[in-house]
Structures are given as structure tokens and as C-alpha cells.
Amino acid sequence: MSTLKRYLFNTALALPPVVFIRDNFYSLYRVEGSSMEPALHHGDVLLVRKSDVLPHTMWRRWTSVAISYEEEEERQNAMRVMALDAQSGRPIGEWWTGRTYLNPPTIHQLGSIIIFRAPDAEKYPSSEYRVKRVVGLGGQLCRASDNFHRLERVPPFSLWVEGDNQGSNGNRSIDSRTYGAVCKNNVIGIAERIVWPPTRWGPLPCVTSSVPRSWWQ
Q: Exposed, middle or buried: residue 38 (CB in 10 Å: 0-12, 13-18, 19+)?
């Protein structure tokens, strides 16, 4: 077998697993704009996890006994969200509604950064996806950052998301304050780390406001 034929043969063997991993587990997305500054800058490339590689390990994390107040709070949030999602009647895990390869589905945490299909893509066709931070979970009351008196009830199976960069007039980010809560079927994945440029390589931890922006009622 010639060198070219061997190369093409090896490429053909490797391509299906690579495509499967890209579509179902991990992929790269580029940040557009400044709405997530200072956490993310225009041009940053993010490693995005589209599903739980070991879902049952995550399930045990949310259902096991917590050893700290923070873990207990996360566990309570997860259990409430799972219960409300189950009662919502929304389709979970169908490839045409979000490419979720999950059983059970991913539990989103407050303060995490997610990539989702833009609900306003027709109005802003330059980008088909958005990068924002989770501020409220389905079932919670959430206070919008642009109006102290504005309270929103986040529907089940949805997330309230906002950009970090509020700007001097609070209008630097187009997010849930404009188009409402984001249905989880539109969520592509969770941003786990910056992989480019090398000078900004590192994980993306969950960051929440010192003053609670969302709560259960």
C-alpha cells in the first residue's frame, strides 16, 4: 500500500470517532464580542462539554451526602431542578432538540458559562450561538441586573443567562433580559476552559454574585 493510500485509509478510520466526539461530547467554540468580559475576551477559543462522559458518576455526585454547605446547596439545587424538569413534560435527550447524549441529563450550575443556540438568530444573523453565564435555574425567582425591581420566574427546563459585561449603561450584553429564559433544548454545552490563546489557557470556574441574584420560593 502506497503512503498516500495508507494516509487516506487511516484518515477514513479516524474520522467517524472524531466526528462522534465532536457532536456528542466535546467541541471548540470561539467567543465573539465583548459581552463576557472580563472573564472571556473576543477571540478566545473555549473547550465545550456537550454531555456528561460518565453520567452515572455525575448522578451519584448529586444524590450522595454533601460534606460542606456549598456542596449541600448545589445538591439541593440539582434535586429541585431534576424534579421540575421531569414534571415539565419537555422532551429530554432527543438528538434533534439539543444533541443530548445523557441519562440522566446534565445538571447546570449557577455561575457556569454555557453555549446555546441563539433565540434571536434571525435578528442577529452574524452569530448562531451565544456565550453567557447562568444566573437563574428553572423554577427560581431571578433578579435582572438592569433593574433592581425586576423579578423573573424562570420556567422549568429553562435557564436565565446574562453576560458579565454590563457596561456603563447596562446594555453591553444581549441576553435573557432581552429574549427571556433559554430553553435547555437550545443549550449546546458547558464551557470548561479556555484553550486559545495559550496565554489565557485555564479552567472556567463557576462564578456567582456576592449578592444572591436567584432563589427558590
A: exposed
With both helix axes pointing from N to C terminus, report the angle between 55-63 and 69-88 in degrees, rounded to the nearest 10.
110
pTM for this entry: 0.81
Residue 99's region, left for phi above 0, alpha for psi from -120 to 50, else beta, is left
Of 137, 152, 135, 136, residue with least CA distance to 82: 137
CA distance 72 to 171: 35
**Per-residue b or e along 174-201, where b marks 16 or more CB atoms closer than 10 Å to that residue's CB:** bbbbeeebbbbbbbbbbbbebeeeeeee
Per residue of the chain (217 residues), give pLDDT as tens: 577 767 666 666 666 666 666 667 788 999 988 889 989 999 999 999 887 766 666 667 666 776 777 777 777 787 788 777 767 666 554 443 344 444 456 778 899 999 998 776 666 555 678 999 999 998 899 988 877 778 889 998 899 999 998 775 544 788 898 888 998 888 888 999 999 999 999 999 988 888 888 888 8
User: By three-state DSSP, how is residue 141 classified?
Assistant: strand
Q: Which of 211, 35, 39 is nearest to 129 (CA)?
A: 35
* Residue 137 exposed, middle or buried by CB count within 10 Å (0-12, 13-18, 19+): buried
